[in-house]
Amino acid sequence: AMLRLRLLTWDVKDTLLRLRQPVGESYAAEARAHGVRVQPEALSRSFREAYGAQSRRFPNYGRGWGLSSQQWWVDVVKQTFRLSGVQEDGVLTLMAENLYRNFCSARNWELLPGASETLSQCCQRGFHMGVISNFDNRLEKVLSQCNLQHHFEFILTSEDAGFTKPDRRIFEKALRLSGVPPEQAAHVGDDYTRDYRAARAVGMHGFLLRAAGLGEELEVPPEHVLPSLSHLLTRIEK
């Protein structure tokens, strides 16, 4: 192989796993179970607003602000419903705690095409493997519910690390955990800034998962672009 890689690190959301349905649909279904009618589209809009405001106020799931990530999320969910007109405190708390739990489960997540096969093949070829994700500490449970956890030697979330991609320190922490120098490591993700550019800034290789025609204006050599995960090994080995 041209690239002498020993370590592959992976983003998770929209790289290996994606939500089965829009957030608004999941929230609306939870509301219906409590006899509350809210439009999924309204909830999706409210969610973006509540999530954005909470992220600006308390970045990285409230780490360093004296909030647990569970409290951080419960506040986001309650605010999402309040912005959509649901005010009753008891039902808000109940729905928020249920939704926090539900998003741990495989019911809400599906694998991207080629994810399982690609991870298995990479393990068979002897790569060290780890996760670098801007996720809270539920990620290990999500990966284990989706039967992916066993592929990885470490799972590094921004909540654990205290740094959020594209901060170079979360990548440096992953390199330390694996003991592999950056030039023998590659990161795979779907976000140009947080995954591809950030990994390359610490001297790692980068592969950007991109549907055809998406983001072609970006300065990414075609051999670093993956139209699907199944393209990864051919890119590495050619």
TrEMBL record:
Q: Which NCBIfam families match?
A: DREG-2, HAD-SF-IA-v1, HAD-SF-IA-v3
InterPro entries documented for this protein: HAD-like_hydrolase_domain, HAD-like_sf, HAD-SF_hydro_IA, HAD-SF_hydro_IA_REG-2-like, HAD-SF_hydro_IA_REG-2-like_cap, HAD_sf
PANTHER family listed in its UniProt record:
HALOACID DEHALOGENASE-LIKE HYDROLASE DOMAIN-CONTAINING PROTEIN 3 (PTHR46191:SF2), PTHR46191
CDD domains annotated for this entry?
A: HAD_dREG-2_like
Please provide one cellular component term from the Gene Ontology annotations of this protein: nucleus
Query: Gene3D superfamilies from the xrefs?
Result: HAD superfamily/HAD-like, Haloacid dehalogenase-like hydrolase
What superkingdom heads the lineage?
Eukaryota
Q: Which family does it belong to?
A: Belongs to the HAD-like hydrolase superfamily.
Q: State which residue ranges cross the membrane.
A: none
Task: State one Pfam family annotation.
Answer: Hydrolase
Q: What is this protein called?
A: Haloacid dehalogenase-like hydrolase domain-containing protein 3
Q: Its encoding gene is what?
A: Hdhd3
